[in-house]
């Protein structure tokens, strides 16, 4: 567990340029003065009062910190330190410089099956580590899969802002990730589980192989309706020469009933992923 340091962050780190931002957080490159090592610093805005709508509650922030500090895996970004002051909490995170898998895809439009399998093996290994610790990410998408370096195909899962620990009996329902990637149980406000992440991996695989997004509609409502109806097809011309094994892998994940969906173990054993 981390006890949040009350010291002045700028006393120990040079703060660099912003590299990303979300609703209540800004991510900046920063450099530890003592060692000149670069990190990603996530500056999270704290709620001023309980009823304030701006910023995150200290409970939400502590949840993200406790989840990140519970995991240690080469395909998941590491948390090194936590600072806090009256207006924000600063997470000092491992810096991954290769950009989002999303950008890699944008430049390539799509990847061949061998490259896709290399990326998926790493995503599945990271997700296996999470699920073994009863943690669900709940926001798996290409923007949250970052490549280690410019021409590296090593990737790490980032951004645990929506992740949850599945405690015994506690039903997790209230999360919404990014419409394009959320499972039917999120759309229908049903209990979430590790299978919710597996659905997102199915969507990511579909996009990796075709460049198309299986459920994307003209607006959020249409997207959510397509998901709830599990209305997708392989008609996208880009699936013309995709192997049956790859389609079978995707079909095992884009199933409405979470209990029928392939687990991360099923995926790691799937012949498309682990050819015997
Ligand atoms: C070089 C670079 C560029 C943008 C980055 C990051 C690194 C980055 C990082 C992290 C997060 C949560 C967001 C990040 N972003 C924001 C965009 C993430 N989708 C992180 O935890 N480590 C990063 O390097």
Which sheet architecture does the biggest sheet show?
5 strands, antiparallel
The shape is globular
Computed structural class:
alpha+beta
Radius of gyration over C-alpha positions, nearest whole angstrom: 19 Å
The count of helical stretches stands at 9
Structure description:
The N and C termini lie far apart (41 Å). The protein is globular and about 55 Å long. It is an alpha+beta fold and 276 residues long. 32% of the residues lie in helices and 17% in strands. The protein has helices at residues 9-12, 58-70, 101-108, 113-132, 184-187, 194-210, 220-228, 244-251, 264-269; strands at 13-21, 25-32, 38-45, 79-84, 88-93, 135-136, 145-147, 155-157, 164-165. The model has no long low-confidence stretch (mean pLDDT 93). The site of the ligand Cc1ccc2c(c1)c1c3c(c(C)cc1n2CCCN)C(=O)NC3=O has 17 residues, from strand 1 and strand 3.
């Amino acid at each position: 567990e981390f006890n949040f340091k009350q010291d002045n962050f700028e006393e120990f780190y040079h703060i660099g340029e912003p590299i990303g931002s979300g609703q209540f957080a800004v991510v900046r490159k920063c450099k530890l003065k003592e060692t000149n090592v670069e990190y990603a610093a996530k500056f999270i805005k704290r709620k001023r009062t309980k009823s304030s709508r701006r910023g995150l509650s200290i409970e939400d922030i502590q949840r993200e910190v406790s989840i990140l500090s519970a995991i240690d895996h080469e395909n998941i970004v590491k948390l090194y330190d936590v600072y806090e002051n009256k207006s924000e909490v600063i997470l000092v995170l491992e810096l991954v410089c290769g950009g989002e898998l999303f950008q890699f895809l944008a430049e390539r439009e799509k990847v061949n099956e061998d490259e896709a399998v290399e990326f998926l093996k790493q995503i599945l290994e990271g997700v296996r580590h999470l699920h073994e610790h009863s943690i669900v990410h709940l926001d798996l998408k290409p923007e949250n899969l970052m490549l280690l370096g410019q021409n590296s195909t090593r990737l790490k899962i980032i951004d645990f802002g929506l992740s949850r620990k599945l405690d015994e009996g506690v039903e997790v329902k209230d999360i919404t990730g990014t419409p394009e990637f959320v499972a039917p149980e999120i759309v229908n406000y049903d209990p979430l589980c590790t299978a919710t992440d597996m659905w997102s991996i199915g969507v990511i695989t579909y996009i990796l192989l075709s460049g198309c997004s299986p459920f994307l509609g003209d607006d959020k409502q249409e997207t959510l309706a397509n998901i709830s109806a599990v209305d997708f097809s392989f008609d996208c011309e880009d699936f013309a020469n995709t192997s049956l094994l790859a389609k079978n892998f995707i079909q095992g994940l884009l199933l409405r009933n979470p209990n029928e969906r392939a687990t991360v173990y099923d995926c790691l054993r799937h012949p498309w992923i682990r050819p015997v």
